[in-house]
Design a protein that fits this description.
Elements lengths: L2 H8 L12 H7 L5 H13 L1 H12 L11 H14 L4 E5 L6 E6 L6 E7 L18 E5 L3 E5 L3 H20 L7 E7 L9 H5 L2 H7 L5 E4 L9 E4 L1 E2 L1 E10 H4 L7 E2 L9 H10 L23 H13 L2 H8 L10 H10 L2 E9 L9 E2 L2 E10 L5 H14 L6 E7 L3 E2 L5 H12 L4 E4 L9 H4 L7 E4 L4 E2 L7 E6 L7 H17 L2
Parallel strand pairs: 3-6, 3-7, 7-18, 8-17
Antiparallel strand pairs: 1-2, 2-6, 4-5, 5-20, 9-16, 10-14, 10-15, 11-13, 12-14, 19-20
């Protein structure tokens, strides 16, 4: 049965009531807008499926890694071509102090305008960890899910973004006008915490275009095995940085690696860094101990706790543990309590430690330099600038002022009201596709939504998408293109969901 068939069967069903939706909203969600046009568009989606799959594969084969400054101009140009091919009349490269961004508009002569956020950069890879080359975009079968594309960027975010572009191709192939105008902004530095994205968004021409929007979304594909999904009302904000200890800067220890026997009378920059790291969290290993870190942290509201309880009841704890390869949560907390922690707690995480010799066997050296790569996740009402200042003051107060703090990127947490049009539109579409959706206070992951939700833009912002993928930032990242799970959409259903979302944004009050 197609997704369109399911939507027709669901029309008028009171069972589509979602948490937080009244009877009028539920009834509105049960009536598919522009049904005849949708049929023609869905037929176009099905016809175009092979080329839509090929588009994702080819995009994966044109990677850009901002962290390594690798192929970024080529990746930007390729992405601009995809956006132009999808029907945007104006596509412009936007220079920044770092990697370039993209600004595009599509004028459909519609009453309303919707903003779309894209990222075109991807995380680094270690090919030795992958079952197939990470930029080959191989199609394979994944038990329990169906046919998937495996490749860096498959789910984060090229698969969902390509599905959104596929929706625009389907409109055109079906001879249908878009029900909304579009403003698209893209960046090539999301994976290094968006240090220059504000330059793109706050450019006068971009800001003026965004001000016309009713909201902005990033395409996603987050259905779980039972078909359910979560609508995040916000996201944590990151601060990404390196701590570097060196004998030269410290004034103790060697300037270069020396023989390890000298440690009897020469200080170690590596131990110096380890001691500094140990001050950043309490003895439990996870509670931040940076001075003043919790001063502005807002606790969960009663409504947020209620939403988390709904999510805990609808999502599989066992599936979550299996996907992450973990046996228990912190303190062996029960599922709902662990989700409350996930939404409410700021973190200080060590991504990696690099010092001295790391090759095969031992090497008797006393290293002259050590580096730790870290990130903190921030919650309301913390800010990126506040966190950076408190981190540096904390280290200096404890005698670690010599340790170099290199902040590579970051931004504030994001919040959007649950009655925002972009949220209500998601609820309506998920209901029509029989994808149970619960509201969740904020994603533990980060995206630069605060650039949109805060002044001067001040737009509601969120994530939306049917379908499934996983493995972001990990080996064997994948995106489902042909689902064998009847509860989960494949690429065609994901694409149809974006079509429905644009219709919903055009009519939602």
């Amino acid at each position: 049965m197609t997704s369109l068939d399911r939507r027709q069967l669901l029309a008028g069903s009171a069972a589509l009531m979602l948490p937080g939706m009244g009877m009028a909203s539920a009834a509105r969600a049960a009536v598919a807008p522009a049904a005849d046009a949708q049929k023609k568009i869905r037929a176009a989606i099905d016809r175009q499926l092979p080329e839509n799959i090929a588009r994702i594969q080819d995009w994966i084969r044109h990677p850009g890694i901002a962290a390594e400054n690798w192929q970024m101009e080529e990746a930007c140009a390729y992405t601009m071509g995809l956006i132009r091919d999808a029907g945007f009349q104006m596509v412009k490269r936007m220079p920044t102090k770092g990697q370039p961004g993209i600004f595009a508009t599509l004028d459909a002569g519609a009453k309303r305008t919707v903003g779309i956020y894209f990222m075109y950069d991807v995380k680094q890879v270690n090919p030795a960890e992958w079952s197939s080359p990470p930029f080959e975009a191989r199609i394979t079968n994944k038990p329990g899910w169906g046919q998937v594309i495996v490749g860096r960027g498959a789910i984060n975010q090229k698969g969902p973004e390509a599905a959104f572009l596929a929706a625009l191709h389907a409109f055109r192939a079906a001879g249908q006008k878009l029900p909304v105008n579009l403003v698209l902004v893209a960046e090539g530095e999301e994976e290094i915490a968006s240090p220059n994205f504000h330059q793109i968004v706050q450019a006068p021409e971009v800001l003026a275009a965004l001000k016309k929007c009713d909201g902005i979304v990033i395409p996603t594909a987050w259905q779980t095995a039972n078909g359910s999904t979560v609508i995040n009302l916000g996201a944590k904000g990151p601060i990404e940085f390196q701590l570097i200890a060196s004998g030269e800067r410290w004034g103790k220890g060697p300037k270069i690696d020396i023989h390890s026997s000298q440690h009897a009378h020469v200080d170690s920059p590596v131990w110096h860094l380890v001691q500094a790291l140990n001050t950043l969290v309490k003895e439990d290993g996870f509670t931040p101990a940076i001075d003043g870190w919790f001063e502005n942290v807002r606790g969960l509201t009663a409504r947020e706790k209620e939403l988390i309880a709904m999510t805990a009841a609808s999502q599989s704890e066992a599936e979550a543990k299996r996907a992450m390869g973990v046996k228990m949560w912190i303190n062996n907390e029960p599922w709902q309590q662990s989700l409350e922690r996930l939404a409410s707690q700021p973190t200080v995480n060590i991504q990696g430690l690099v010092a001295g010799y790391t090759g095969q066997g031992g090497k008797t050296v006393l290293p002259g330099r050590a580096e730790a790569k870290l990130e903190c996740r921030l919650v309301p009402n913390q800010t990126f600038r506040e966190a950076e200042a408190k981190l540096k003051a904390h280290l200096a107060k404890r005698g670690f002022g010599d340790i170099e703090v290199v902040v590579s990127g970051g931004y504030d947490p994001t919040e959007t009201a649950e009655d925002a049009r972009v949220v209500r539109a998601q609820q309506a579409v998920y209901a029509r596709f029989n994808a149970p959706a619960t509201l969740y206070p904020r994603s533990a992951g980060s995206w630069p939504g605060s650039v949109f939700t805060q002044p001067p833009v001040s737009l509601p912002a969120g994530q939306f998408g049917l379908g499934h993928g996983s493995g972001a930032h990990a080996p064997n990242e994948y995106f489902v293109i042909e689902s064998t799970n009847p509860a989960v959409q494949g690429l065609a259903g994901c694409t149809a969901g974006f079509v429905d979302f644009l219709y919903e944004m055009a009519v939602a009050r």
